[in-house]
Amino acid sequence: MSVETQKETLGFQTEVKQLLHLMIHSLYSNKEIFLRELISNASDAVDKLRFEALAKPELLEGGAELKIRVTFDKDAKTVTLEDNGIGMSREETIAHLGTIAKSGTADFLKNLSGDQKKDSSLIGQFGVGFYSAFIVADQVEVFTRRAGLSAGEGVHWSSKGEGDFEIANVEKAERGTRIVLHLKSGEEEFADGWRLRNVIKKYSDHIGLPIELPKEFHGEEKDKPAEPEWEVVNRASALWTRPRTEVTDEQYQEFYKHVSHDYDNPLSWSHNKVEGKLEYTSLLYVPGRAPFDLYQREAPRGLKLYVQRVFIMDQADEFLPLYLRFIKGVVDSNDLSLNVSREILQKDPVIDSMKSALTKRVLDMLEKLAKNEPEQYKAFWKNFGQVLKEGPAEDFANKEKIAGLLRFASTAEGEGEQVVSLGDYISRLKDGQDKVYFLTGESYAQVKNSPHLEVFRKKGIEVLLLTDRIDEWLMSYLTEFDGKTFVDVARGDLDLGSLDSEEDKKAQEEVAKSKEGLVERLKSALGEQVAEVRVSHRLTDSPAILAIGEQDLGLQMRQILEASGQKVPDSKPIFEFNPNHPLIEKLDAEPDEDRFGDLSHILFDQAALAAGDSLKDPAAYVQRLNKLLVELSA
C-alpha cells in the first residue's frame, strides 16, 4: 500500500447527506442498479479522455486501449470497478464526490416526504449516480489520478456513507479511477462472477467500450494462471451505431437510463440514420417523468454529441429548441470536425439544418405517441405540457404542429383534466362556427363557473378553459389553428357571428338603445374605474361582468409581470350589465343617486371577484354591502 499524505477528513454537503440517506433507505428493491450507474460514470470518464486526447495525445500516457474492468473477492466481500479514463485530481474528487453542484437541489430535497416508496420515485427525477454504491456497500473507496498529473498526485477517497469522508494523496501509477465497494452483510451475492456478468449484460451491454471480467477458472488450483485472463462481457459497440432490427426494446430502454441517469423507462424513442447532404445518426427519447429542474431554464440540458463515434460533449443544447429541453439522447455526426466547440456549434449552418430536422423528428414522435398511445400521451402531457406550451412563441416554423399537440380542459369534457386537443375541438364545431373560443383564469373552478360562459352554455358552444400561468402568454402567439381564429370570450365586444340569428342581433340593438340612459348613469357612478359601460350579450344569469379591452393585458399576464418586478401598463375594464336581470332592473328604477352609486360599486366589485381579481378597496366594498344589508333588514 502506498504511503498516504495530506490526509484530511471533510464533511459532506448537507444535500449529499440527505441524498445518501434517501439512496440507502429507498432503493433497496432494485439494488443491482449500482453497477449500471458506476459503469455509466466510468464510460463517461473514458469518453472525456478520448475527447481531451484529441488536442493532447500525451494524456493517453502510452495506453490507448480504453476499457472498464470489474473484479470481485468473495473472501474480502468486495467488488472493484476500474477504468482508464480521465480520472480526477484532488480538487475534482472533493467537488464531484463531496458536493452536488446542481442548482435547485435544496428545493428538490425539501419535497421529500419521508415516505420511502414516494421518495424512491422522486429520486428518479434527480438521477442516481455515484452515491448508488452505498445501496450495497457500507464503505466505498476511490483511488483516482487525473490523466496528465504525476503518479504521486493520485488520490484516495474513502467514506462509510454517513456524515464525512477521508481524502489523501497517494501514489497511483495508472491514470483513471478504481472504486472498491466493501459489501454490506447480506449483499455478498454481488461478489460473484456469474451475478456480475448477468447484471452487466442486462444493464450495460450497449456501452461502446469493452467491459471485462476475469475468466472463470475451472480445474485444479495448481493449474490456475498467475495473472487473471480477461473476457469482454458486453457487445462493446455503441448502441446507436447498430441497425434498429438488431436492438431490442429492453436494450433501447437500458441505453436511455445510461444517457439520462433516470431509472424509469422512457415513454418513446426514435432511432434514425440520415444519409445524403448531411450524415448523422440520432437516438432521441421522451422521458417518462419530469426531472426536478425542468423549469429552471438555465439548467443543463441537451443531447450527448459524438463526432464520428468520438464523444465530444454532454448537454449539447444547440440541436433542439428550449421548449424541447426534456428530450434525452445522442446525436453522432460525420460532418462536424473533431475539435468542434460550443462557440462553433452556435455559428455552424450544419447545426441549423440538423436542429430543424431533429425538432421535426421529436414533434413527429409526440404526434405518433398521442395518436397510438393516448394514455401514455396523457402521462407525457402531465409532466411536460407546460414546457411544450413555450413552443409557439419560440418556434414559428412549427407553430401549427405544436398547436396540434397541446391539450386543454374544456366545457365539453375532462372535468378539469387537460385532455382536449384543438383537433377534437374543431371536429365538434357548431354549424356556422368559424372561431375557437377560450377563457383564461386562475383555477378550473373559477373559469368553469365564470359568467362569461353563460351565453355559450345557452347555445351549446364549447369553450376551452385555460388555467396554467403560461396560458395567456401562449394565446398571444397562438392566433389561429386549421384556419380558425382564437377568441378570448372575456375580451372585447363579443361577436358570435353567424351563431347569432338576425333576430338576435336586432333584439340586442334595440335593448342597447333602450338602456342608453342607464349606461350614462353607470358611467357617471363608476367614473375612473371603467373604460366603458355597455349592455352585455354574454350574460343570461348574472347581473354584470368585467370584460378586457382588445389590446389590454389579462389578469394572468398582469400577475406574471408584477411578480417579475416589471411595470404593468395601466388599463381599465369594460363594465357590461345584463338588462334582463332583476338587480339591474331595480338599479335602473333607483331614484336616489347615492344609493344608485353604492349599488353600482357593489356590482362592479362582485364582477371583479367573479373574474378572479382582487378588490382595490375591500373595506369600501364591505361597508357598502353592510349598509345595504342593514337597509334590507330594517
What's this model, at a glance?
The protein is α+β, with helices and mostly antiparallel strands and 634 residues long.
CATH superfamily of the largest domain: Histidine kinase-like ATPase, C-terminal domain
Low-confidence stretches: none
Provide the spatial order of strands within the biggest beta sheet. 1-6-5-4-7-3-2-8-9
Task: Report the count of strand segments.
Answer: 22
The assigned CATH architecture of the largest domain is 2-Layer Sandwich
At the third CATH level, what is the topology name of the largest domain? Heat Shock Protein 90
Tell me the radius of gyration: 33 Å
Largest sheet: 9 strands, mixed
Jot down its keywords.
22 strands, nine-stranded mixed beta sheet, single chain, Heat Shock Protein 90, 634 residues, elongated, alpha+beta, Rossmann fold, 4 domains, five-stranded mixed beta sheet, Ribosomal Protein S5, domain 2
What does this entry look like structurally?
Strand 12 (303-307) and strand 13 form a beta hairpin. The chain is elongated and about 115 Å long. Helix 2 (33-55) packs across helix 6 and helix 21 crosses helix 22 (618-633). 38% of the residues lie in helices and 19% in strands. It folds into 4 domains: 5-237, Histidine kinase-like ATPase, C-terminal domain (Heat Shock Protein 90, 2-Layer Sandwich), CATH 3.30.565; 241-382, Ribosomal Protein S5, domain 2 (2-Layer Sandwich), CATH 3.30.230.80; 385-498, Rossmann fold, CATH 3.40.50; 501-633, Four Helix Bundle (Hemerythrin (Met), subunit A). The mean pLDDT is 85. The strands form 4 sheets. The chain has a 9-stranded mixed beta sheet with strand order 1-6-5-4-7-3-2-8-9, with helices on one face. A 5-stranded mixed beta sheet has the order 10-11-14-12-13, sandwiched between helices. A 5-stranded mixed beta sheet has the order 15-17-16-19-18. The termini are far apart. It has 634 residues and is α+β, with helices and mostly antiparallel strands. The protein has 22 helices and 22 strands.
